[in-house]
Write a structure and sequence with these properties.
105 residues, alpha/beta, Glutaredoxin, 5-stranded mixed β-sheet, 4 helices, Thioredoxin
Length: 105
């Protein structure tokens, strides 16, 4: 499976172990999140083995959302060696996300 659904307890270790990660903060009730989901799935399959692509449900993991200061969803956070390097808020074309990944691989 290309997409990792994160729980708070495993998040830090998983992200620290990955040289590059893309994490989508979302919720079931969020329309724009549902629009972005196929993009995240596509990127997950395209970058499998190179980038850790994951999702965090903000309703189930509010502590992670607070820690990253997620105020609006969908928010996609990019982390390199465990440190945030970029973030995108809202629905955007796949090239916006892959551009960040390609520039940091």
């Amino acid at each position: 499976m290309a997409i990792k659904h994160f729980k708070t307890a495993e998040f830090d270790a998983a992200v620290a172990a990955a040289p590059l990660a893309m994490v989508d903060f979302w919720a079931d009730w969020c329309g724009p999140c549902k629009m972005l989901s196929p993009v995240v799935e596509f990127i997950g399959s395209q970058y499998e083995g190179k980038v850790l692509v994951g999702k965090v449900n903000v309703d189930e993991e509010p502590e992670l959302a607070r820690r990253f200061g997620v105020m609006n969803i969908p928010t996609v956070v990019f982390l390199k060696n465990g440190q945030e390097i970029d973030r995108k808020v809202g629905v955007m074309p796949p090239q916006v996300f892959t551009g960040v990944l390609d520039a940091n691989l």
